[in-house]
Structure formats: structure tokens, C-alpha cells
Fold each of these.
Amino acid sequence: MKINRSAGMLLHPTSLPGPYGIGDLGYEAFKFIDFMKEAGQKLWQVFPLGPTGFGDSPYQCFSAFAGNPLLISPDILVEEKLLDVSDLQGIPHFDVNNVQFGEVINFKHSLLEKAFNNSIERDIRFPEEFEEFCNKNEFWLEDFALFMAGKKHYQGKIWADWDKDFAARKPEALKIWKEKLAKDVEYQKFIQFHFFKQWNAIKAYANEKEISVIGDLPIYVSYDSSDVWADPELFSVNEEGKLTSVAGVPPDYFSPTGQLWGNPLYNWDEMKKDNFAWWIKRFSQMYKLVDIVRIDHFRGFEAYYKIAGDAKTAEQGEWVKAPGMELFKAVKKALGNVPILAEDLGVITPEVEELRDHFEFPGMKILQFAFGDTGEKRFLPHNHTENSVVYTGSHDNETTAGFFWRERDQNSGIYHAAQDYMNFWGEEMCEALIKTAYKSVANIVIIPLQDIFNLGNEARMNFPGQAAGNWTWRFTANQLNSGLAQKYNHFVKMYAR
């Protein structure tokens, strides 16, 4: 499905302002949508919205279907009388510019547990809504709630290290553990209900303002997830739950030793047996949350990089064919011609391009990669196509200002090539690149909010291959203003977006 010429911004809700150590789905999210509306934006791109696990990465979640409880707004829980105003007094002194995940996790869950206990004591259950939510989401919610209750009981250990029969999902063991962990299971359902309730209000407000939400679907799920625990036969794990092979990518411009992601691979032969039912459910769930789906590492649907389960780096591996054509035909048959964006960066073969173009999925163009003798010429604007998405950079890149400042200081050919290409010789290279993106024939332009603020690499979101210290950047409320919104509204009008 082709998307009309439009502009948008990339910002994950964790980066929103607020007093609780992490951005959430409260009032600041609505203010950001108002800012985008004033700026003439039609698209809001976010990272995966699932419950984060190892490294606090939204691309390593405990579930492909659940929501992140850290995003639940305490202010809205106060409105619903699940918390008292006094519960929000004496908040820890959080860094306003960075998420301190360890402290935030403890603080947020203490509030959520209090809200859950209050819901019982005060009989604030939203009985009809809650029952409807649980029934509609039973296919993933039951397993997820028990999985998270199990992780709490085992103090965070991966599921393969639990009681043997519980890990193996023996029916009698599941029955015993469901009874034993009944209150924790109910708590997990409670916080999922409130996540979805709050997120649905945010999405409805965005849509009311004529802004579509672009969600992110990581191609792989985490090993330590309810997905793998619930359906191990669909993944590359053996009968003991150990990984036999894992996902990653070979050495490239991001990492000289490749990226060893450690996610289990799919057992595609097993998935074909029911015509990719698990994937149909996953996409269906995504379209309840967002309007457009961006698929991370799209090339893995044509062929995936298979690495031994005990490998230390991604340098040794092999490419294996994947049934992408069959899968997306099944998705289209089940859900219709749904809008999908393809992250087609890295080593892209003609076969990957054929798969992308067969379904008319827009691919990505990253302008930071385009310039100089070593640049990707396909990313230069004169090589863009209408059915594509152009970015200054993504969450995996330096900020554009940081990128140019570094290249300038190194007196690199890349900096001078960018100046020459854009015919811009001033200091504001970041804004020049943004305007270059807006000028592109690509139907969609998405700019990270860090670039809109012209921030340096202190605001970088992720360093691929670095296990810790990512995903922390936040902005403050005073950085959004009407003058900035009007500036981008002018760009939208000038470049017919």
C-alpha cells in the first residue's frame, strides 16, 4: 500500500518529559501530538511498545504482544482513583535528560502494585472493560501473565532455568503454578489492561488530529520471552529449551565483528503447517496498536543469517532462505492490503528488493550514509523513489548534528561532499540535511526529534553492539514551542507534504 506524500517525526514515548523518570502515556504525550499537529506532521513513528527485558531495549521484549508497563501514566491512575495524589509525593530525584532504568523500574512497579492493591480494596475493577480485554487477548495474555509471574517468582531467571516441568509446560505443572501464582498473574493482567487503555486513548487522539502512528515490529522475539516459552516448537530451541542457533548480522559498517543478537530463529517449516497463524496474530495485534507497521530487519524474511547457538561473535554464520513471499501473501489474504514499511538497510540483495517491491513496501533511505566516496549512492536524493521513506538518521545512528560535527573535526571528505551536494556552506548542516530530506521525491520523510532540536551525540539513542547505556535520552517540555512547530509547518507547505 502506497502512502501519500507526508512528513513525520521519530520519538519513542520513553523520551517524553515528566517527573516520573521516564516518558509515559500521560499529558505530555497529548502535548506532543498537539505540537506535531501544529507542525503539519502526519506521522508519528515509535519504537516497539513491548515490555523491555535485557538491556532495556525495546527490541528485546518479554512478549511480542504485550505492552510496556513502564509507559503507564501515574497521573491517569490518580484520575481513576487507583492512586492518591499523596502516592506521587516524595518522588525520587530523577535525571530529566536520561532514563535511569534501574531506579525507574523499581519506582514504577511500586506504584503499579499499589494501584493494583487499591483496585481490590476500593473495588475499582472496570469489570466489563477488563473482562472484555482479557477475553479478546486470551490467546497471548494467559501465557504472558503466567510467564511474568514465573519470572518474578524465580527472581528474573530465564524460563529454561525454572522448575523443569513448569519450564516444559507440563499440564499438571501449569495448573499448580497458576494456582500458586494466582495473584501475580492477576496483577500482570491488570497492568496490561491499563497499558492498552492508556495507549488506545493516545492513538485515538493522534488519529483525531489526522496523525497516523507508525509502529515498529522487530523481526525476531527475545529468547527470554513468553512467546518462546509458550510455543518453543516455533523457534530454534531444543527439548531442554537451549538455543540451537541464533540471529544476527555479519560484519558491516555498524560493527566489524557483526552483530550477535542472540534471538532464536524461526522454525519456518513448523510455521507453514498452519499457514503462519502465529504471524497473522502478531500482525493483527500490531494493527490494533498502530496504523502503519515498520518491519525491522526486513531482509530476514528473504534470507536470514544463522549463527551457532554457542557462538561468541557473529563473524561465522550462513545465510538461509526464508519464506517471505509465502508469509506476506498469507498476511495479505488474512488482513488485506495493510500498510508496511520495510527496513531494508545493510546487505540488500536483488532477491530482497524483489520481495519488497512485489508487495510495494516502501524501503528506507538514510541520508547520513549517502555522502562521500564510501557513501551509499542509492541513498542520495537524486536516486530516491516515490515509494520510500527518507530519514536523516535512525535510532541506530549518531544524531545528524553529532555526525556532521565529528566529520568536520576529522576534516573528512564526507563533510565536504555533503556541503557540495546540498550547496550549503553554513554552520547549520543538520537543518540543511532535514530540508534536503523534505525536498526528496520520497513520499514519506521522518525526522528524529533529536535532529529537529539540533542536538549532538549526547542525545544519541542507541549504539548497535553496545549492551548497556542505550535508549535513555529524554527531552524537556521547554524544548517544544510554537516557533519550532511553525517552522516545520512551513517546511511541510513548501515541499508539499
Note: The chain has a mean pLDDT of 96.
Amino acid sequence: MSILEKITNTEDYLLGMLLCDPGLLLTVPFDLLIFRKWHRVVALMLTQLNSGIKPDVFTLSEKFPDWDSLVFELELLKNDSKGESGNYKKYLKSLESNVTEVRVFTALKKTLSEIEAGTMPTQAAAGFSAKMMQLTSTANRQYSYNAKELMAGMDAKLKEISENKGKFQIKSGIEKLDRLYGSFHPSDLVVVGARPSIGKTAWGLTVASNIARGGYKVGFISTEMANEQISFRLNSLFSGVDGSKYRYANFDGDEWGRVANGIRDIGKLSINVCDKTEMKVSDVAMQCSAWKINGGLDIVVVDYLTRLKPEREKASKVVEVGEIVTAIKNMARDLRIPVLLLAQLNRAVTTRTDKRPTMADLRDSGVIEQEADSILLLSRATKDDEGARTAIFVDKNRHGQAGMALTVEFDEKTGRWF
């Protein structure tokens, strides 16, 4: 029996059970699209149930002009499924599994056709990977909840947090920020903005290394710096050796030993770096998905927004950036991890007396403000930027206080924020 025949037979059996006991529809959440042959009928049954109507052959017949030709078949299905309601969940799971299998095969076939038609293999593979991530992340996921289910889920989450005593609370390691902000939440998009040369990458590496030291699995997407530069910066953070000395290995006294200790300590951490320069969101999603499958992934830092490429070029940069940010947010939800997205601010902040950055300074798109769960803005006192102070401004925070300015420190020699 082919997979398509299995799907059809399972659908028939399930519909027969539902005609015998329509209430089964409300016992287990599922994607209506897994039903193909009987999609219209099952959708109408669900609508009637939610309206307080118990579906049967007669209530359903009023909505289908061709119902007369279906009545006999449905009555047979109903008779064949009598007394089998106890197997409903088993057959529903089987249908979901078989439909997913067909979707994977269809996506793979489409990818091969695209390659044969001239699409670059890497581009086609990225599209296939993004589709697979969507299929696997949505399989058996519940999207609709009643009040009782919501509270049950909340109760379970609170117990998990209490029992683990903060084990799964991913903190930045910057004390003032953690006191105000708490921890980075799964599925959150945290946008971190700053002017060029203020220290976005240094902030991202500081936080990534702090989190990794806490035992978490961290991913770092670098579209600007090569892996050698990232390794030098990480080692400087750990060793305390001036980062400018790494370029020529110009170390003094005990610095060679401190560098060696840094190499040893960093090698024990779960930090993965991808330094591909030309990256689309689908490439980012494919890499993060691979990390999550191969060893796990708790959080990812993406450096930085405006160097990411759109899937297809648009006439407007604003539209491109908006689509990229929305896709990154969707990736965070699909993988259920926090994503720290570094972004550049425009020049408006340099014209203000107080040098205080705001959300409106984020380049190219207001969609950033809409999609981000949190927006952190970095400011640093420099010789060329009089009036600025070294601070983190929490301009948006869906989980707590916003509009706060946190005075912090920045060590230019090591690139450490603290």
C-alpha cells in the first residue's frame, strides 16, 4: 500500500470516528491541513462544534450542494468506525506522521527541480533546510489554547523554574542589566543597537562568553569579522591581554601563559561561530538549526542586521530590512531560543547634545521596533563623541521596565562590557 493510500484510508477511518463522536475533535489540537480528502467536512464540523451545534449528517448536509452523493459513503464510514473512538489519537498521530513524510518528499523533489532548472545548489539547499525547520518545529505543536490549558501550562512552567532554581535563566552577565532585565527568554528577539565603533561586536562577544561560561550552548553569527578575529577577541576577554597585541603576537612577560590559559578555558565551552560574509536569513536559520540538532543551541548572537541579505532583492531597503527582521523573529519562535540581533544606528544621535540614542535611530525600518521583544541601545564615552556616556539604554522591554539608562563600563583594551 502506498503512502498516499495510507493517508486516504486513515482519513476515512478518522472521519468515521468523528461522525460517531464529534466531541473527539476538541480533545487533541491538530493542523486542519493534514486532512485533504475530508478537509471541508472536518472544518465545518469544527465550526459547528464551536458554535454549540452537534454535527451530524443532516446539519452538515445544509452546507454542501453535492451532499447527496456523499451521504451513502459517509454512513458507511460511520458504521465501519463504531466503537473505535479509543483509537482516535493513535490514528490522528499516524495521519500527521504520514502527511509530514509526504511534505518532506515534496519539498525535496521541488529542491531537486530547482537545481535542475539552474538555481544555485546552496540557495536551493537553504530553502529546503528552512522548509524542514518549519515542518519539524510545527510538528505536534499546539497553537490554540483554552483558559484551562493556558493556566495548566503556566503552572507547569512556574514549577519548572522553581525546581531548577534559575538553571534555565540565561543572563547577560552584566550585573546592572540582569537586575533590571532578568534573563533572555526563549523565542525573544532582542535588538542591540549602536553607532559604528561604539562596541556592538564587543558587547555581543562579552555576553556570548558570559553565557557560555554559565554552561549554555551559544551560537555566534559573524558577517563582518573572520573567525581568527573572533578568536582573538574572545581570548582577550578571557585572558585580560590587550587585544591590539594579538595581531603581531607581541606579548610580554606572563602574557603568553595567560593567552594559553584562555585557549584552554575557551576550548571547554560550547561556543559555535559561523563567519560566512554573505548570509540570507535562510542561511542563518539553516546554520542555527544544524547547531541545535548537533549538540543543542540555547541562544544565538547575530552580528549584524544590515549585513544580512534578503531572500529576494526589493525596490526599497526599508522593505528588505523589515522582511529580514520579521524572518529572524520567526526563527527565534521556531527554534524556541532567544536571538540577540546587533544593529547599527543612524547618524541622528551624533547631532544631539546629550548623545542619547533612541529606537527611532535604528536604521532603515520601523519594523525593527514592532518585531523586537526588547531593544537595548549602547552608548560609549569617546574622545570623538563628547557628551556621550558609557551606558545601556533599555528602550523596549516586553517583560518589564523600559526607558531606563544603566551606566556601565567598557574596557577598550579587551573589548569587555561590565
Note: The first helix runs from residue 3 to 20.
Amino acid sequence: SKSSLYVFSRVLKRVGQKANYVQAIPIYLSGDNEVSKYLSEHMQDVDALTGPYIHMIEVDAIAKGDAKFVVSAIEREPFRFPGLTINDLPCIWFEDDLGNSSFVTLPNTIDKTKEAFQELAFAARKTRNARTIAASVRKRVMSKADERKWAFLSGIAFVGMVLGFAIFEPNPSPFQYTMFRIVLALAGAGFVSMTPGFLSAQVGTFIRGGGALAAFVIIFFFAPAALQVPS
């Protein structure tokens, strides 16, 4: 209908408009240790990064860990933070003077929180719209999560392939056994790429690796459960 098209066009126009101001409100509970620690120690840095482009609003009750205040603000005043639930915490709530609002759920790690605020500072210099800024930050945060997810799924897939080969080829040829080791090494590298900590390995003088590459080197070159395959 014409009325629906009119409303839709108005929404598109509002989303594309440049607001006079955008403000961001970090919302979290005291149990969100990494996020609360980062903000308590680096709020001035965040404010400096966003500069005049975004007004960072630090709510004292949230900073003091008043969980009742946070829950009340979200559940008893749904029109203040429309669409936001407790399950979305920790997050950054964005709003502008055009009536746009959105939020980005933060990963509860200091490194990822730092990346989110860096992206926020970058996005704020390109646009003055709460939804557009939130979408840019969300893309940055989700891309990292997707990387970990796909690395984990790839590891599972490779392990599944090896198990399938083992079932249908209980007596592999030397070539097949070498391929099994390559696939298993790739699976181990995929799993290690999404786990914290650092791993390093060296084989001889010239082969050296760290992180996921180290896992590949260890699994491929060191085979404590190597089988005696028929020649």
C-alpha cells in the first residue's frame, strides 16, 4: 500500500541521514570482568579515540556494578532500550538525535573489546548515524567470531574425514597414511588457531613454526602412534 511505502521510504531516509550527534552507552554487569576492567582503565582513551564524533556516556551505576539498576533499565523500561535483553550484555548501546538506535554485543575479552572500540572510533569518522556505526562495529566483532567458528568446524570436519578413512581403509598404503597425517595435522592446526596461548615448534634447523603452524609441524613430523604400514 501507499502508506507502507511511505513509512518504508521515511525509515530509509532516516537511516541514511547524518545526525547532529551520536552517543554510545556501554552497558554491562559486574560479572563481565574483562569488559568492565577495560572500560574502568581505558575510558579516557576510548573518549579520546571517539573525539567529537561520538559522545561516550559512562553511567555511574553501571560502572559501580549495580546489577539491579542495569536489569531495571533494560526490563522495566523497554522503550528506553528497545530490543535489548539481558542476554545481549555486555554491549554498547548507540542512539542519535534522528531517533535511530542499535546495539552491539561485546565479546567478553579485553583484546576484542579494544578492537570493538577502535572500530567504533573509525566508523564514527565516516558517518553520524547510530545504526550505521553499530553495523560497522558488529561486522568487525562478528568477523573475528566467525573466524574462530570456521576454524573449529574445519578441525572437526578434517577429524571426521580421518575417522571415515580409518573405518573404510583399516590397512592404508604408505601414500594413504601420509595423506591421513596431513589431514590430521590440518585439523590440529584449525583447533589450535582458536585456542588461547602460544605454541612453538622446531624441526631441524630450517623448519620452525608458531601457533597453528606449530601444531601442524608437531602432528605431521612427530608421530608417536605411527603404524607399521605395508610397503
Note: The radius of gyration is 25 Å.
Amino acid sequence: FRISPEGSRVALARINDAEGVDLWVLEAARGVSNRLTSNPGFSQLPVWSPDGRRIVFSYGHGSPANLYLREASGAGTQQQLTEGRKMRIALDWSRDGRFILYFDLAEETWQDLWVLPMTPEGKPAGDPKPYLRTRFAEVLGRFEPRTPPRWVAYQSNESGRDEVYVQSFPEPRGARRISTAGGQYPQWNANGRELFYVSPDNKLMAVSLRVQADSVEPSPPHELFSLPSQPWSLLQNPYDAAPDGQRFLVQGPDEQSWPPLTVIVNWPALLKKGPATQ
């Protein structure tokens, strides 16, 4: 799921009757959902355009996922933005509308971050270009909310475990580590002066940032609150921050995925009986 730029809608993925996944747009105040896609296969991981008019998402059916674009109103048809034989997942759309950041799966470099240039009208403005492509896994990138973006926050395992980093944009000139004891799922506060992430023990953490033209100075991380403990996928954020930076939408536990509990009453009496005999 992803909250819209103005904070009144939520784009989310739901399993459909055919055991695929489709996208819906939820009007938060009314609690009304409108279906955005009706595709066979998997339409998921939506990202809003900065003006809230469009949604880029990942779609695959019998083939690796690529990036597609759809009007958030549901008007028209979906437009394919990328074409390839490896999985591509949309991650963020810069606030000036000029770049889509996405995840690319490659054989040689494993997991990389790429950028697709865009026009103000929401059309590709050129070929995709690699942004971070190393022998480590770079995933879950997010643009700094200022315009033009000068920094990207992302997750990497270059230290031997997942940590959150900030790197310059459009050209990477050296990463600054933000998390101190492991971190995943980074996300900027809309004011650009704070970064959120999830700690290894499922705490939502916050780091204040002093952002300058050529440097980022982080404060020590502090805990905001605990998140529900559950298995999350690598590319599925367990939370999203509202534009005001004061509210969060959190992925709760799926009640259907948990096994039922059996309650045994008067169990001391059962112990006194000893083991059953046949």
C-alpha cells in the first residue's frame, strides 16, 4: 500500500478470486475502494505520481514483472513503461516528476537501483539508466522529497547485514550510513529533515537529518513505536508515513495466516493422571 501525496487516498494491492493480485484505490475518509486493475496475474507495489494523478506499478503474468502506468481515476488503459526479462519493481517517483526509481534484478550484480526519466505529462523521457549497481544488494530506494532531489535513501547489505544509507543523486559520490544496528524499509518524512526505517527487532525508528548541498549529517536513531511482528517480503513496506509526518499506516498481522490456538483448561489435573495407557 502507499498513501497518496495529499494524504486522502491509499493505493493498495488485494488478492483476487483468481489467486492473482489487483490494485485498488481507497478513499480514506469514506472507506470506499475503487478497483484500478483487473488483470490476470499480479499487479502490485503501487507508487503515486507527485501530483496524485497517476500510479506506476509492477505487473507480471507468466513472465517477470515490468513497470506499468495507470491513471489513478481508472480512466483509460495501462501503459507499459519498461520491457525486460528480469523483475522490475517501482519504488518511488521524484517530487519534481522527472524520475521514477525502480528495483532491477540482474544476474551479474543481483539487486540494483535504476532510474527512468519522465516528462511532466507522465511519459518516459528517455531510456532507463543504472543508478546504483554493485555486487551488493541495493533495494527499497526513496528520493529525498525536495526538488530537485539531491539524495536517495536505500537499503544495502554491503556491511554484511541490511543497513540504511543515504547516497547523492543523480550521481552517487559516496554513501552515508544512517542506521547504526541494522535497518530496512527507509522512508523520508515529507519535510526532508527526518528519515524513518525499521530495526531488526521490528521497531519503527526515526533519524533527524541536517541536509546540505553536499552532505548529510544524521542524529542518533530513536524509537517511535513497535510494529506488529510478522514475515514481510523484501519489497513490501510494512508501513507508510502520511504527508504530515505525524501519522503512519501500518501493515497489521493477517489473522487468517495465523494457526488457531488450543486452550487447555485444568491442566494440573491432567498431569496428575500420568501418561495415557493403551
Note: The first helix runs from residue 267 to 273.
